[in-house]
Amino acid sequence: MNEDQKNNPEGKPSASYGENKKLINHDILKKIIIGLLVIVIIMLIFAIGVRLGEKKAGFSYRWAEEYHRNFAGPQEGFFGDWRSFPRGDFINSHGVFGQIIKIDGSTIIIKGDDDVEKIVIVKDDTVIQRLRDTLKINDLKVDDFVVVIGEPNDSGQIEAKFIRFLPPPPPEASLRSPSTFIF
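The structure corresponding to this sequence follows.
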């Protein structure tokens, strides 16, 4: 007889055996709960991505539908029949980079780098900056280059949160002219 059999002649499981079994059950339960939490977090991240994608697609659709109102374009909208929507990326709905082509009160029209004109609404809480200086909407001028960060509205316009002045890009002709190259 070994030591355990002498101390427990009836062969009943010891108290430490029951504690080990409970500990193992708690470890398994913890792993299951953690696994479920990870799955829930992954599902939440996926749902957020789907929501952002829907918002971006909705902005592109509304922008196309409101084009004729915003820019006096064709009556049937920019794309006409929505089923013939072009393949490729959606229109950037949260900002624009480009040149100011018109200023009308608190509304700015910017020609983006993709040659798409976008309407930007400037509100009282919009921050406008040139380097470290904070400016007002009256300091904006036609032909200024800006970057706008904002949020799309239901009319296919961008409500600006932040506008930053940029230096004008160098003229392409001077960069490509043969006289600028040294042989």
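Strands lie at 95-104, 107-112, 117-130, 133-135, 145-152, 158-166.
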